[in-house]
Design a protein that fits this description.
Elements: E1 18-27, E2 39-40, E3 49-50, E4 52-55, E5 58-64, H1 66-73, E6 89-93, E7 96-99, H2 110-113, H3 118-129, H4 134-139, H5 142-146, E8 148-149, E9 157-158, E10 162-169, E11 171-180, H6 198-206, E12 212-223, E13 227-234, H7 235-238, H8 247-265, E14 272-274, E15 277-281, E16 290-294, E17 300-302, H9 307-321, E18 327-330, H10 333-340, H11 346-352
Parallel strand pairs: 6-18
Antiparallel strand pairs: 1-13, 1-15, 1-16, 2-3, 4-5, 5-10, 6-7, 8-9, 10-13, 11-12, 14-15, 16-17
Helix pairs in contact: 8-9
Length: 359
């Protein structure tokens, strides 16, 4: 069996439906340490703050969402060890350079759409709609791994093959308070005039010239039920990718995307998520860490492929597929202006199309 054939059982129609990973995590400070979840703005009936579902004492708290995890994992392919696996598309926008791997909407992002790659990507998305994902894989292969929706143009959509989420269970929500004391009593010392209205007083406070008290703000959570990272590689979805009706090209495409997906799936992230949220593997979990192949009938078998094996396979599959050309392109203001007006936008054109007259 060649290096390219070794994982073809994952591409077979009767192969495993998914690879599933379950890791138990703890704060670096210890299992009873305080961890700070993501906070969200208020809206749609949500008061804002931590995303906690369920009753007190039997709840689930979102520590890091699917989208956030994808945004942390995808830039892996910028690193020296992995960058030869995918084309490096870098967009210069003013003084800033943005790799497509960092663009929130990947190949469907505005920053990419407003470059010379506009038509290339539009054609690639149209090919996806016609059952051929190969052109998109030549430009933005990670869009096939982490999912993409060309929501502002062709409406082409590809699902996430890799999904990862971190949740905490049975959390106790904490609050914290703080008091700011200025370095000098500016008003008492005659250094500043006494503020005459609320606006002036607020300005003094904002600039650090008055005492400021903050009470009962977000103070993190203690996860009595533990913290868990769940990740899935949806092999059944990967097997839906095609390069038109060409069986050989389809196999090469699927092997390439499988190699990238396995590389991400077997990678152990550092899990520094934000200030106050540094997580590590639990060395003594209450239930074991698991990584399984899940068959269509529900049977589970241990998954034992290492990250080194995945990377070796990914390199061979990338070479066989023929990765696309790396490019540095410029964000074009005129394209952006036209994009805002809907010029070149197939979805907008469809909306504006006149209905045929009836008699």
């Amino acid at each position: 069996m060649s290096n390219l054939d070794k994982f073809d059982h994952y591409l077979a129609n009767d192969g495993p439906s998914a690879l599933v990973l379950r890791q138990h995590l703890i704060p670096a400070e210890g299992p009873d340490g305080v961890v700070f979840p993501a906070t969200y703005a208020a809206g749609d009936g949500f008061a804002g703050g931590y995303n906690i579902d369920g009753d007190k004492g039997a709840n689930v708290c979102l520590i890091d969402s699917v989208g956030s995890q994808a945004n942390r994992l995808e830039p892996l392919f910028k690193e020296d060890k992995y960058k030869e696996l995918v084309p490096q598309i870098v967009i210069t926008a003013g003084e800033k350079q943005v790799n497509i791997l960092e663009a929130g909407h990947r190949a469907g992002d505005a920053i990419v759409r407003c470059t010379e790659l506009q038509k290339v990507l539009q054609d690639a998305f149209k090919s996806v709609l016609n059952g051929n994902a190969e052109p998109l894989a030549k430009v933005a292969p990670t869009s096939l791994v982490f999912g993409v929706w060309d929501s502002r143009d062709t409406q082409a959509k590809l699902p996430r093959l890799i999904s990862s989420t971190i949740r905490a269970y049975n959390v106790r929500k904490l609050t914290r308070s703080a008091q700011y004391v200025p370095a000098a009593r500016y008003i008492d010392a005659g250094l500043l005039e006494t503020p005459t209205d609320k606006a002036a007083k607020d300005a003094y406070s904002e600039r650090g010239f008055l005492d400021v008290t903050a009470t009962a703000t977000h103070g993190g959570v203690i996860a009595d039920g533990g913290i868990r990272r769940d990740a899935t590689l949806a092999l059944a979805a990967l097997r839906l990718l095609n390069a038109g009706n060409d069986a050989e090209k389809t196999r090469a495409l699927r092997r390439y995307i499988l190699g990238l997906a396995l590389t991400v799936f077997t990678y152990q992230p550092a899990n520094y998520l934000r200030q106050g949220c540094l997580l590590v593997l639990d060395p003594e979990p209450a239930s074991p860490h698991r990584c399984d192949e899940v068959l269509p009938n529900g049977e589970r078998k241990p998954f034992k492929i290492t990250h080194a094996e995945s990377l070796e396979y990914a390199a061979a599959a990338a070479k066989a597929f023929g990765i696309g050309e790396s490019k540095n392109v410029a964000f074009e203001v005129e394209r952006a202006k036209k994009d805002v007006q809907g010029e070149g936008d197939t979805k907008t054109k469809a909306k504006k199309a006149k209905k045929p007259e009836t008699t």
